[in-house]
Amino acid sequence: MIKHVVLFKTKENAPLEIFKEKIENLKNDIPEIINIQVGIDIKFDPNSSDFCVITDVKNINDLEIYAKHPKHLEVISYIKPYIIERKVVDFKV
């Protein structure tokens, strides 16, 4: 299994709860997603990111399908104007 972890810093007015809903709903449209979680930061550490996405897929091929899926790209286009920084880690479990 592959874990795809993305950390985001956003502009102050970013609608994080809407991001969470849209991203987590991708599981309904992209069968390659085994699990997807969105965590909104609790602001304990001032250097933290604002939210993260953790997606589980079976393999690299499924990760590529997820990355290029039209519904995923639609969500990206919605959140992109709010993003200041994005960091990614992909690893095998």
TrEMBL record:
Under InterPro entries, the record lists:
Dabb, Dimeric_a/b-barrel
Q: Where is the signal peptide?
A: none
Q: Report the residue ranges that make up the Stress-response A/B barrel domain in this protein.
A: 2-91
The cross-references to SMART domains, in alphabetical order and at most eight, read: Dabb
Check the record and name the PROSITE patterns matching this protein: S_R_A_B_BARREL
Protein name, per record? Stress responsive A/B Barrel Domain superfamily
Annotated organism of origin: Nautilia profundicola (strain ATCC BAA-1463 / DSM 18972 / AmH)
